[in-house]
Backbone:
């Protein structure tokens, strides 16, 4: 069964460094998402992407964040200058035209 | 703004017991509701999606019900097993547009004791 994959599974970085989190959505899916979950808190929406552009972003998704789908298969989330409070689990999800969203296993980002 | 609440926050039961997890949402204009399972430090596994036009959806020992008008959903787990131990999350998509960004509850941490 097709799955959403994410790399790396764990990323440790120093505050102020740039990180790129990578996702390979399920092929033929049309809608792509990033969510994050700070330890002990709810999963929260960051950004959605459709037709090669951002369709919606949350208040969290400020100028430090960007997303790209560079080659038609990968979907990346870049954080330009990481802060301590960016430490969280980041989930990628994709959706076909139908409703169910399929989530990847997540990348645990630790900012020191 | 949609708010999703899950009760109880944690539940511990002996193996074999039937149990019910609760989810409530403030904006009843939803398209569907999705239940997920999350194992510690892991991703989200979709369990069931119940459409707004449906009252129930079943998968194996799991049964989800939806009462849109009262803003409630329940996840019923029959004959619980230790392997069911996990956090169960419910989520609803936004009601405007086709974006379907999900708003999650905080989850119910279920422990099934052998």
Residues:
């Amino acid at each position: 069964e097709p799955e959403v994959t994410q790399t790396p599974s764990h990323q440790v970085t120093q505050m102020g460094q740039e990180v790129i989190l990578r996702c390979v959505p399920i092929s033929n899916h049309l809608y792509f998402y990033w969510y994050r979950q700070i330890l002990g808190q709810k999963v929260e929406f960051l950004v959605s992407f459709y037709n090669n552009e951002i369709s919606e972003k949350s208040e969290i998704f400020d100028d430090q964040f960007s997303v790209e789908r560079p080659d038609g298969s990968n979907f990346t989330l870049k954080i330009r200058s990481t802060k301590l409070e960016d430490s969280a689990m980041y989930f990628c999800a994709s959706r076909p035209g139908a409703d169910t969203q399929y989530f990847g296993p997540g990348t645990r980002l630790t900012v020191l | 703004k949609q708010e999703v609440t899950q009760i109880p926050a944690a539940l511990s039961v002996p193996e074999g017991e039937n149990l019910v997890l609760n989810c409530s949402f403030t904006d009843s204009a939803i398209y569907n509701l999705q239940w997920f399972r999350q194992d510690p430090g892991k991703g989200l596994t979709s369990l069931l999606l119940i459409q707004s036009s449906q009252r129930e959806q079943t998968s194996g020992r799991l049964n989800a019900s939806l009462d849109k008008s009262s803003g409630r959903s329940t996840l019923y787990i029959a004959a619980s097993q230790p392997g069911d131990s996990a956090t169960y999350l419910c989520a609803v998509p936004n009601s405007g547009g086709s974006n379907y960004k999900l708003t999650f509850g905080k989850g119910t941490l279920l422990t099934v004791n052998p």
Summary: The radius of gyration of chain A is 13 Å. The longest strand of chain A covers residues 43-50. The mean pLDDT of chain A is 93.
